[in-house]
Amino acid sequence: MGNFPNSGAPQLGTRVREARIEQGMRQAELAAAVGISPSYLNLIEHNRRRIAPELLDSLAAALNVSAVAMSAPLDQALVERVLAFANLVETGPSPEMGPSPEKEKVNDLASRFPGWAGLIAAQADRMTRLEARIQELSDRMAHDPALSASLHEVIAAATSIRSTASILNGDDSLDVDWQQRFHKNLHADAIRLADSSDALMSYLDAPEDGETATSPTQEAEDILFDMGYHFPDLEGPKADVDAVLKSIDVAMDVKELLRSYLTQYAADAKALPLSAFEDLARAVSYDPAALAAQTAAPLSTVLRRLAALSPMEGHPPMALIQTDASGTLHVSKHLPGVIFPRGGACPLWPIYASLGQPGRPIRQHVTLPGTPESRVLCVAVCEQTNPALHQTPRLRAMMWMLADPKPEPGFVEPIGPSCRICPRPSCDARREPSVMVTRIGP
Amino acid sequence: MGKRVLLIEDEPNIIEAISFVLSRDGFTVHTHEDGETAMDKVRAAPPDMVILDVMLPGRSGFDILRDLREAEETANLPVLMLTARGQAKDRELAMRLGANHFMTKPFSNREFRDHVREVLGE
User: Fold this and answer.
1) Of the N and C termini of chain B, which has fewer Cβ atoms inside 10 Å?
2) Which residue of B13, B21, B108 is in closest CB contact with A189?
3) pTM of the entire structure?
């Protein structure tokens, strides 16, 4: 029977045990069926012995399962996502959560119950996006002058109506002239209230299909997220951006944002063909500097290309964030469990420091809040895109992130998502109080 | 003649309603709609009390309050602040700057009249 590699399925023994239990077989029974000792089978089931392909065939046959299905590699990307979620929800005390998740069993969970693990990971992604959207809406509520003016209009009209109606209602002896005057004011304010309420609702109104983007940029980012940030049709000599865009039904402004992203993606794919880049990336442990040196490609191209590598192909989770001089963040690729508010993000993210030194990359390990804290390697670089001397510099910065990197000696910067939802009470870069700090106490 | 109240507010219908309510209670009500020139009005005709809106054209009510407290002749002038923003930080700022009381819009006329009397010590 076929030659099935064992090395990509680290929890194979667990799967054998699970299948045996499902069949209601005792260890001695299965061991006898495949011609090995029960003690050896026990070692196999506890992942202490590798399984030769022939033995795997025998076990699969005895268990009446597919050897191919049993030896499918563990979805490492799924494991990372579930683990990231476990770290994120442990940020603060939460009586309703119950016992802490058994993080050492995450491989078992992904291996034995991939559906449940996938559901957890999908909910984690959804929570990350929702929290980012809440942060964005909160920023909007706090800082949007149009929204503030609209709310003021509503309240001013309501105040006048309340006072005027109270006068009319409480004074039977009110002079006719005053009555007419106040009725006229009441009428005018009622119209004003209706108009300003309508304007406010239009401003805040969301389309009927539920959770949707608040801007074309957000919608484009959501689409890229749904498509996994990887576009096989753009890898290779016949890359056709228009063909990819044709299959996406969105408004024109969103399509133009996607066109810009995909055009850059295709150019990067041409400069650094996927297959060779993947092999090299693995060989240098995804070190951007080493990749830039070996490919002679600009660091920005290397960072974008790294972010395009899919966890489905066994690459570690990586993210890419971009910004300009406004500091507004655009998420070119999410990192599971990490929130990137569009505005008002933590000022300690290296991408902001890179804006102050165009052309000089920053490499920084950071830790994100959680129990335990998660470590991320960041490489940020800023480019000036307009060479003209007598213009305001057009700056474009990007930050690549690698989850759970190998620890290195040197300073590790503790950072957060944004001040408003960061649980670090004594950060000297804090810009505003956090809703999280009261949860974890002084 | 009743006590002089200066209402610094830019919404015409609110001005009319509040003026009517206070006049009926025996107060002499003067009004001013522009934040930029509010201090000139106070100096020109010193009132017994100021009712001060926060959101004004020209200057915010908080800036005017600060000026009132910094000037010797108005340092102790009773001030009731009105605002459409009910956040705790606005209330804290108003009290820190020296307002005697703070009300958020919309409010009931009864509550408003009670606060005016309280600020005037009646």
Assistant:
1) N
2) B13
3) 0.47
